[in-house]
Amino acid sequence: MSDTIFITGLVTHARHGVMEHETKVGQRFVIDLELSIDLSESSHSDRLSDTVSYASVVETATAAFTNANYKLLERAAGAVSDAIFAAFPRVHAVKVTVHKPHAPIAEIFEDVGVVLMRKRPSS
Question: Where does the Dihydroneopterin aldolase/epimerase domain lie (predicted)?
Fold first, then answer.
């Protein structure tokens, strides 16, 4: 299947990191999502019930990302993918990219982050 719903540039504030000031003050993160989903039915029916709501995906991802404080971006991205699978049974796979453009690194850099690609766990 090659159908994809994508959401890019979702900006949120969270308190993830290993350093104390990261968990106290927090910082800006940017999340990109790609959801593998069969869109054949919705591409003909024009019914929201045959796909997933972008707004609901954003709400689910944001809540999963911000409702807990994680040391690692890997864990925060994992929480997002877990929440998407739990909330949207139509999603077969998900790619979660988390950008941490203000990571406490003592060099000049444009961006740093993680990319997680997960398939729906088998039942």
Answer: 5-118
Query: How far apart are alpha carbons 103 and 73 in whole angstroms?
Result: 11
Residue 100: active-site member: yes
pLDDT tens, position by position, 41-98: 999 999 999 999 999 999 999 999 999 999 999 999 999 999 999 999 999 999 999 9
| Model confidence, pTM | 0.94
HSE-CB of 114 using CA atoms within 13 angstroms: 13
Beta strands in the chain (DSSP E): 4-14, 27-37, 91-99, 113-119
Task: List, in order of start, the domains of the chain with CATH numbers.
Answer: 4-104 (3.30.1130.10)
